[in-house]
Amino acid sequence: MTEILNGRVLANNIREKAAERIHKLPHPPGLAVLLVGEDPASHLYVGLKENAAKEVGIYIEKYELPAETSEKKIIEIIEELNARHDIHGILVQLPLPGQNVDKVIAAIDPKKDVDGFHGENRHLLLENKPMLVPPIALAIMRMLQASHTPLANKKAVIIGNSAIFAEPVIELMKEAGVEAQFLNRHATSIAAKTRAADIIVVAVGEAGFLQRDMVKAGAVVIDVGTNKKDGVVVGDAAPELIGHAGFLSKVPGGVGPLTVAYLLFNVIKAMEVQERG
Ligand code: GUN
Hints:
By secondary structure, the protein is an alpha/beta fold.
């Protein structure tokens, strides 16, 4: 039996709590979202974030910029937003169509970095003094908690294309007593490594990448992939994992909605951090 973890139900719960907190505040938190270029998936994700923010009472400003906007112009907009007192969170939707991501992210005031991507926020998390933690990492941890798996001394692998995505997840897992390791999708003998894991987080962006023979029976699988196959949104985990994995966070309806919900919480957190001074 595979228990399917329902991210939508968990996310609705978090969104209701966010709305309750916001209604008690003297003024609404503000979020600015920069969307550069025409990538349809990015437009879709930003639309979901925008609707969720409005629903809980967050003031939102969206900057839709042409793909050829210069890095300098994007940084100027960020600097103006950094200086505003009614904007508490700044999010640059990724990927950028050519501009240097590191330079753009570095321009965001770390106290407004609701994605938790800024070097200062990454550093604070590694030092066990988290300020703003990436919503995706919080979403993955919430999913693990929902699986009711005791985490101490468990082995986890995070399979992805970039160690940067995995870094905050590994850190939070380590704090929970999990022995977590990043695996590049092209790592040698990958199936043997994934089969040794009690927890597998997969984020490679290839439908059906994680096959049944790569997964230990009863393992917890958290799918973070988003792919289109025959016009349908699917994750990276093969459907044959159902009946084999112990717990499965599927796509859609898994970590995606939870990530949006935690973004809302980060906007509230950012406002608290700034107003504390
Ligand atoms: N693109 C894909 N995932 C994310 C995310 O979590 N934040 C941002 N800003 N862009 C993304």
